[in-house]
Amino acid sequence: MTDSPPVVSSPDPLRSTAPAPAGQDAAPGRDHAIDALRGFALLGILIVNAGSFASAYYSLGVPEPAFSRPLDDVVRWLVAFVFETKFYLLFSLLFGYSFALQMASAERTGAAFGPRFLRRLLGLSVLGVAHAWLLYAGDILVTYAVLGLLLLALRKIRPGTAVVLAVALLALVSAGWGLAAWGLAQAPMPPVPLAELHAKAQLAADAYRASAADAIAQRGRDMAEGVWFVLVWVQGPCALAMFLLGLAAQRSGYLAALALQPDRLQRWMRVCLPIGLAGAWVYAWGQSSGVRHTDHLAIASLAVDLATSPFLSLGYAAALLWVLRRGPRGRRLGEALAPAGRMALSNYLLQSVAGAMVFTAYGLALMGQVSPLGVLLGCVALYAAQLAFSRCWMARHAYGPVEWGLRAFTLLRRPAWRRSGPQGD
């Protein structure tokens, strides 16, 4: 999940830039909304990913026996309701938006965009493979790199066509899972015995806690046994759809105009949030209610979620953009979030480093020993630390550390390390 570092100035009011130093006003005509959205999305990504770091029962469909109190069930339900399947969609929307910005920037400067973007995707894929094997099996960077090839092939698509294709992709994925649920309802399969699920979770937890080598081997098993299936049949198509919506939003200028109109943002909120929250409730009931549902009900809840999560992601985005326009408080919120969004890739990887150090044999090996509430509070603390660190880092540097390396590989030259002025290099 990477940001789009600016290359040249752009009239786009949503163009990401570095925040002005403390005590100074931002340059007129500039807006940090895209960076703030990325910074906001980092919190959702952290909370969702932390669940799989903390418990080997994550995604097995049964609650962890050690944490089966009502409070534990409530926290898991809230995480599923508010965060799961929503924030990677927001990141994907911003990836498509940034892709369009990079392409427009290359056109203005006369640079060859294709080779540059292919190097960026290669860099992302290398980072993603290392991330998946060494830190977190649920990595999405490789998926982004692969889907980026499709986005590159579709780069000349018209905004209206991109929207139609995106809607069709989302409809096909949700309908496919709905048909799968219907099929299982007609010919139900016997559920996996609970004892087998408990044994599987225990073996995984033991491997993650045993040694670094055992943890790496277990990540490989996790990827082979289920992670790649989810990426291919759920996250991949949905992420591509959001790429296309982001591309259309930038190409048409719609998002830039929308962000400046609070009344229209409120209309988007009134439409998107109720639909998205209703679907999220169904998903949380089917996936994290503390009750083991039959397979067809669990899959049906996923199908509903796939159809409605984009609404909730767009509703979140509209709500944040609306808040950012609400006077000094909104501006302060944007200033707090934007630096983290500018170095979103560095922060994403740092979150995985922290998760691996706390929950696996790399460090404290606490997998299965921290309650859902403890994990949630830890995420809030880590996120607050990332906001503070990002603000300090971006006050002195042109890019986040990983963004700097990726940019150097993309452009085949050494970018500025330190900031050269209030708006960076």
What's the topology here?
Elements: H1 33-54, H2 70-82, H3 87-109, H4 113-134, H5 141-153, H6 159-186, H7 194-210, H8 212-251, H9 254-258, H10 262-288, H11 295-324, H12 327-342, H13 344-359, H14 372-396, H15 401-411
Low-confidence stretches: 1-13, 15-30
Coarse structural class: mainly alpha
The total tally of domains equals 1
What's the N-to-C terminus distance? Answer: 22 Å
Give a quick rundown of the structure.
This protein has helices spanning 33-54, 70-82, 87-109, 113-134, 141-153, 159-186, 194-210, 212-251, 254-258, 262-288, 295-324, 327-342, 344-359, 372-396, 401-411. It is mainly α and 425 residues long. Helix 1 packs antiparallel against helix 14 (372-396), helix 4 crosses helix 15 (401-411) and helix 5 (141-153) runs parallel beside helix 8.
Can you give keywords for this protein?
425 residues; mainly alpha; 15 helices; 0% strand; disordered N terminus
Describe this structure in words.
The structure is a single chain. By secondary structure, the chain is mostly helical. It has one domain. Helices cover 72% and strands 0% of the residues. It has 15 helices and no strands. The longest helix has 40 residues. The two termini are 22 Å apart.
